[in-house]
Amino acid sequence: MHIGIAGPIATRDVLPLLGGASSALPTGTEGAPLLGTIIAELLRRGHRVSAFTLSTDLPLDEDAGVVASGPSFDLHYQPCRRRAWPFNGWRPGRIIDLYSFERRGLRAAMASAHPEVIHAHWAYEYAWAALRTGIPHVVTCHDSPFAVARFERDFRHGAYRWLRAGIAWHVLRHCRRVTAVSPYIVDQVRSLCRVPIGIVSNPIAEQPGRCSRVVRSRTAKVMMAFNGWGRLKNGRAGLQAFELLVRQRPDAELHLFGMGLAEGDAAWQDWQALGRPGHVVFHGAVAHDVLLDAMLDSDLLLHPALEESFGAVLAEAMSVGLPVVAGARSGAVPWVVGDAGVLVDVARPQAMADAMLALLADAAAGRAMGERGRDRVRANFSSDSVVTQYEREYELALVQSSGSSLRSQMA
After folding, report:
1. What is the pTM of this model?
2. Under a CB-based contact definition with an 8 Å cutoff, are residues 43 and 58 in contact?
């Protein structure tokens, strides 16, 4: 089958599939290594894949698209405006015209590649472009658009998120085949859809070379990993929880990974404002492999987010046996974590600190949670299981499209 995959794809996440030097290619879009996992598994199964993504390092011209190729795989890059509100040269901010320029480029690339079915990830610009091609489609919801918008208190970012939610409302009203990554997201978007919603979780790639974490005798190494430092991620409460932990465990270290979590970024500024003791390292955005290696060198993952549609970083931590502390009422988190971590009220820093202290004090409990986490990921979130379900969705989308065409001919 010739399958289209549309969404944020970073070059470094699929570079082994392209067989080229990354310096000669656009960077693509960071933040969704799971798409590389899906593409790799589809290729392993013998499918042909054409992928479509945006990149801000391309000239803002209609014909500036770039195509990179590997065995049975093409990655189509289209230009994307860097700024959401201010002008980008003579072009307005991308949210002002609802990504019109970006959608035109994506649509043209999809039409030129003409896959049998397009699988668009997130119900925004990629999915809108896919719908406009008329090619049979599957759209996967990775978040709750209106829930994300409600968490934004800043007017500028809030307006951006509400306009994005409007895009999702339009897309989901017109989709013919929709999946969501968790039961929580199904509940959140059901009222926006005119068709039933299937549940297919995010895939977590196996890590055969990452099976043994470092066992520590004296130090306590905690990590937080997510993108963005807004109210939804609740990172400031995580910093406060760590400060409370340090009072009991002065040896503790906190390592932060993700966009907005580097020195000088919002996370660093909040820590400076707190003016508390404790050893905190702000790594910022790193390659996916670096993040996974950091998990092997940690004692637990603290995930203070108030809402998660799935929480891939949680499942990735579980896949390498890292116990987690996360939110008991944070969207899909309890469904993902199960009994592989400690679930608490993440609105209370003291509750997170107590959970971390208890886990660090009981190495045997941590190891048991880690084993349960590995088992849970293998049973529920493996790339083999997820892609098998998506193959079925693609087949149904094709059948659905054929039936619609036949009815049109008979009318």
Report:
1. 0.91
2. no
Collapsing DSSP to helix, strand or coil, 108 comes out as helix
Highest CATH level, class, for 220-380: alpha beta
pLDDT band at 407 (very low <50, low <70, confident <90, very high): very low
Under the banding of pLDDT at 50, 70 and 90, the label for residue 277 is low
Domain boundaries along the sequence of the chain = 2-203+383-410, 220-380
For the beta sheet containing 279-284, the strands, ordered from the edge strand earlier in sequence to the opposite edge, are 279-284, 252-257, 220-225, 300-303, 324-327, 341-344
> Which architecture, in CATH terms, is 2-203+383-410?
3-Layer(aba) Sandwich (3.40)
Burial 193-218 (b: 16+ CB within 10 A, else e): beeebbebbbbbbebeebeebeeeee
Single-letter amino acid code for the residue at 347: A
Query: Residue with structure tokens 């999809």?
Result: 110
> In this structure, what token pair is assigned to residue 189?
């978007």
Residue 299, pLDDT above cutoff 90: yes
3-state secondary structure of 324: strand
E strand map for 56-194: 66-70, 73-79, 117-121, 137-141, 178-180
pLDDT tens across 183-237, in order? Answer: 999 999 999 999 999 999 999 987 766 565 655 556 899 999 999 898 899 999 9
Which among 23-27, 197-201, 248-252 has the top mean pLDDT?
A: 197-201
Q: Locate tokens 């059901």: which residue?
A: 190
Write out the two tokens for 269.
Answer: 């500024």
Q: Any idea of the CA torsion for 229, 230, 234, 239, to the nearest 10 degrees? A: 40
Asked if the domains 2-203+383-410 and 220-380 are classified in one and the same CATH topology, the answer is yes
Element (H, E) at 15: helix 11-18
Q: pLDDT at position 7, please?
A: 98
Place of tokens 């990172």: 235
CA atoms within 13 A on the CB side of 60: 17
> Which residue type sits at 342?
V
Confidence of residue 275 (pLDDT cuts 50, 70, 90): confident
